[in-house]
Amino acid sequence: MKCKRVSRIDLVLEGGQWSGGDSTQVEMIATPLPMQPTGYVIKSWAEKPYGTIKTLTVDAVHDGHALAVRLQWEVPPATTTDFPPAVAFALPVKATSPLVLMGMAEAPMHILRWQGGAQAGVRSVLAKGIGSSNHGPDVGQKALARQDGNRFSVVITRVLGSGAGAAPLKAGTTTKIGFAAWDGGNEERAGIKSFSVDWLDLVLAA
Amino acid sequence: MSKRQVAMVMDLNKCIGCQTCTVACKTLWTRNEGQKHMLWNTVNTQPGQGTPHNWEKMGGGFRNGEPQPGHRPGVGDFGKAWDFNYKEAFHGGEPGVRLAPLGGEPGQGPNHDEDVGGGTYPDNYFFYLPRLCNHCTHPACLEACPRKAIEKREEDGIVLINEDHCRGFRFCQEACPYKKIYFNEARGISQKCIFCFPRLDQGVANACARQCPGRLRFVGYLDDPDGPIHKLVHKYGVALPLHPEYGTEPNVYYVPPLSPSKHDADGKPTGEMQIPLDYLESLFGKKVHQVLALLIDEREKNRKGEKSELMDILIAREWIKNFGPFDKHPRSIENIKVVVK
Ligand code: SF4
Ligand code: SF4
């Protein structure tokens, strides 16, 4: 996935001039049931389909100081309002961080997760394995979300650079990126979600 | 497995349904943002729908050791607390205004079927069932949480939700077969009875127990041979868990209710208890029959002026002994700092 360099991210956000046809369609699949962390979750979702968000349309730009990732998707009509819509992208803190295991102790992954609803906002999370995620470092994360019926468009931004626990980002280098999405209207939350199976390359233009 | 387990016993023969326990708990713990619908302690009329309405049909718990899917009760299931037009009705000066709930049709309140009960005259019957989180030995809530946000305290087995770790996924609400977890929509976290642990930590019994005018609540450790809990649950075996078939091994126990005799066509007592035994069995399991028989025997002893330790405990002749080691006065509590983030 290409991350184009723009002069100023705020202008992109205002003007909506995204990657000009460079969007990536990211295929998503439901997180496997046996990987769910508790017996209750496995049992209660055994007969229920989840992972309804099958594709994310992703664009990324940076301006040498900050990264902006736009995520767009569509959901079927909601069956509940108990859980918020949510989307996240993950970056490896070390090159060896495994996406499918949600990181590990020595090689965590750094997640920026947006959710809507009553507690709307974007959260920085450090994951060291399935079911063990905690507060992540402050990377100046912000989000800009728009909902139009069943269609969502969320832009998540953070500063480039590195720091304790933060996934390093530097213009002119290549790192990895992974995605997860939760259809709250289908009661999706926690490990009940869809995800992008493996890392994709994220190429930050010089 | 915790080293020790605190427990509560309630003698249903003595509950008058006054809700003092409910209010004691409400005033102490659930007056903050997002807690309006929360009643960590409830008292409902049996037979009846209870709170949340029809909770016994909402699933959860374990069958053959396997977790069972359950319903996630919402604010409507618990029954909204109604607001009334007190100001207009009592101080408004308008003759036509009557006391009424605000906001039109308010729906079923938490205790909407109070005193309805079952049976037909002259053999109609009911009794009150106070409920709180059972601080189970095999807590379905704790085992369901993917974030390990629920803990069972090592020193006394109290089950607590860690509000810093909870993300409001609400699997615990679905998994708890007693439906004793509430969701705080304002804060996005689940909350429930904390067994008044800050009081217990200072030797003071739970507010619901201490305030109960019926003096029917006992508190203590299950393994303390001198305390009331051990005597009622183990020595005499008269205190039974509610719905043991749910598989969570509750630590709140009940002394089942005796009831007056049914009547024949001439209005004479038949000797058969008004509360049907199969109904009591459906709540407390098969042991309920032997418990009721023992209660009748011991009551008879008492009547004849013979000594009955069991009756002395249940009558609460020395009320303060209801609380085992937690017999300090609430005024003795020092330095309690309530932290609400
Ligand atoms: S009663 Fe429900 S909430 Fe309380 S410990 Fe048992 S399973 Fe958990
Ligand atoms: S305070 Fe005691 S008597 Fe009153 S409802 Fe509660 S348990 Fe029953």
Distance between the termini of chain B: 30 Å
Structural class of chain B: alpha+beta
The computed structural class of chain A is mainly beta
Total count of helical runs of at least 4 residues of chain B = 11
Helix-strand string of chain A:
EHEEHEEEEEEEEEEEEE
Question: Mean pLDDT score of chain B, rounded?
Answer: 95
- Give the domain tally of chain B: 1
Give a count of the beta strands of chain B, DSSP E runs of length 2 or more: 14
- Chain oligomer state: heterodimer
CATH domain fold name of chain A: Immunoglobulin-like
> What is the approximate shape of chain B?
globular
CATH fold name of chain B? Alpha-Beta Plaits
Bound molecules: iron/sulfur cluster
Task: List the uncertain runs of chain A.
Answer: none
Q: Portion of residues in helices of chain B? A: 10-25%
- Give the number of helices of chain A: 2
Largest sheet of chain A: 14 strands, mixed
Question: TL;DR of this structure?
Answer:
Chain A has 206 residues and is mainly β.
Any overview of this molecule?
- The complex is a heterodimer of chains A (206) and B (341).
- By secondary structure, chain A is mainly beta.
- Chain A has one domain (2-204): Immunoglobulin-like (Sandwich).
- In chain A, 7% of the residues lie in helices and 44% in strands.
- The model of chain A has no long low-confidence stretch (mean pLDDT 92).
- With 341 residues, chain B is α+β, with helices and mostly antiparallel strands.
- Chain B has one domain (6-83, 108-332): Alpha-Beta Plaits, CATH 3.30.70.
- Chain B is built from 11 helices and 14 strands.
- In chain B, the strands form 6 sheets. Chain B has a 4-stranded mixed beta sheet with strand order 10-1-12-11.
- Chain B is globular.
- The model of chain B has no long low-confidence stretch (mean pLDDT 95).
- One iron/sulfur cluster is lined by residues 133-136, 139-141, 159, 176, 178, 180-181, 192, 248 of chain B.
- One iron/sulfur cluster (SF4) binds next to helix 4 of chain B.
